[in-house]
Design goal:
By secondary structure, the chain is mainly beta. The chain is built from 6 helices and 22 strands.
Length: about 425
């Protein structure tokens, strides 16, 4: 026997003990995942969630309230949900402060509906809102609760308003045109020429009788049509010009019911994501994770997707440390897929790298659930809710299935 062969056999001497674990927050028998291993070469042991709860808690949280220029804004109201928006304009000339109201033939505010609605869009489908000047400083850091708490941000004067129904369509939807108070235009022209006062723009504020929230085009990457003001005016005797103020900064403020603690909630507009926390300290650090599957059960009663089709895929991100999700890209990311269009089950089958990394970094960690498509996360009121690890119905709790191997007891440690 050669030296290489002797060493190879010596390496194989310690028997590998393979655990197939169905790890969830309730007691269940092992699944086919474990029994798919070659039965005559391994030992299969089922660990009960009663003895080791690897999924510890779920935490919904607000990801990034500072988003602006998302490419679309939401305006309207339905039930507990309400969305207002603000826009600041550019291309305001500084050479027309001499104009008077009689010089302005027309002033129009134009916005562009998109093919999405949340609320009673199949019934009353009523959107009603008023437009008021913004008179205080604001930027992308303005939070939703601050926006709704500070009524002094707006002038009481209504400079435009609209009420009606928007018929959704896959093709282009006609823009909404409103008559704009000419005195606002004159005020902005004088302020721009004086270069002393800042123009903070306008706010779209939904009326309480609205039954729907609609999406409108806004400033952002790739945007073509967005809010603008069209002014037809006499700039000199016999000369009629058309001037456009165009959107420069857009931001909307979606308010709704708070997500439930210990449920997994993903919601667009407010950018609510959720963490699912794990504790795998009873798996030895030298274990080899061969396979990991995570299954979530959707809470259909609290899930709503407006006029859009429900996302069949959601994204699962893994970060090395708490707080990294706002500072860095995920170390790994995966996808959960809905079993079918009629199923409430979402499954991720490739999470082994997550738990291998947790064994290296303290045997505790979490993953983050989010919408994969930016349009769902940034520009909708869509939300999907999954049952959490403390759900009274144990059959609906998240389920984690692991297959891992380790050296025999003499050579393994935690």
């Amino acid at each position: 026997m050669t030296f290489k062969k002797r060493n190879f056999l010596a390496f194989l001497t310690p028997a590998l003990l393979v655990f197939a674990s169905l790890l969830n927050s309730c007691n269940e028998e092992p699944t086919n995942l474990g029994f798919s291993l070659i039965k005559d070469t391994v030992a299969i042991i089922a660990e009960s969630g009663k003895d080791s709860i690897y999924i510890t808690s779920a935490e919904p949280y607000l990801f990034n309230p500072e988003t602006f220029n998302p490419g679309a804004v939401l305006i309207g109201k339905h039930g507990d949900y309400k969305s207002s928006s603000m826009v600041r304009f550019s291309n305001i000339p500084d050479t027309l402060s001499y104009l008077s109201e009689s010089d302005i033939q027309s002033a129009e505010l134009i916005i562009y509906p998109l093919n999405y609605a949340y609320g009673d869009f199949k019934g009353t489908n009523l959107l009603s809102f008023k437009v008021k000047p913004v008179i205080k400083y604001w930027d992308n850091k303005l939070a939703t609760d601050q926006f709704y708490a500070d009524n002094s941000m707006f002038d009481n004067k209504v400079v435009a308003q609209w009420s009606g129904s928007i018929k959704l369509s896959d093709s282009t939807i006609d823009p909404i045109t409103m008559q704009l108070d000419k005195s606002l235009v004159l005020d902005w022209l004088k302020k721009t020429a004086g270069k002393k006062d800042t123009i903070w723009g306008i706010a779209f504020l939904p009326d309480d009788n609205s039954t729907v929230i609609n999406r409108f085009a806004a400033q952002g990457s790739g945007a073509i049509d967005y809010a603008r003001i069209k002014i037809v005016c006499n700039t000199a005797p016999g000369i009629v010009d058309t001037i456009y103020f165009t959107s420069a900064i857009d931001k909307f403020f979606l308010m709704g019911k708070a997500p439930e603690n210990n449920k997994i909630t993903i919601e667009g507009g407010r950018q609510i994501r959720s963490r699912l926390n794990f504790d795998i300290t009873n798996i030895p650090t030298l274990a080899g994770i061969h396979r990991a599957e995570l299954e979530l059960t959707m809470d259909a009663e609290n899930t709503y997707f407006g006029s859009s089709i429900q996302d069949s895929i959601i994204r699962v991100d893994y970060y090395e440390a708490a707080g990294d999700e706002k500072l860095a890209s995920p170390l790994f990311y995966f996808y959960m897929k809905r079993e079918s269009s009629t199923s409430n089950k979402y499954i991720a089958k490739s999470l082994a790298p997550v738990f291998s990394q947790m064994l290296v970094t303290g045997q505790k960690g979490y993953v983050v659930f989010r919408f994969d498509e930016p349009i769902s996360e940034l520009n909708s009121a869509n939300r999907i809710v999954f049952h959490g690890p403390a759900d009274p119905d144990t059959s609906k709790r998240p389920k984690l299935r692991l297959i891992y191997s380790l050296l025999d007891n003499k050579n393994s440690s935690k």
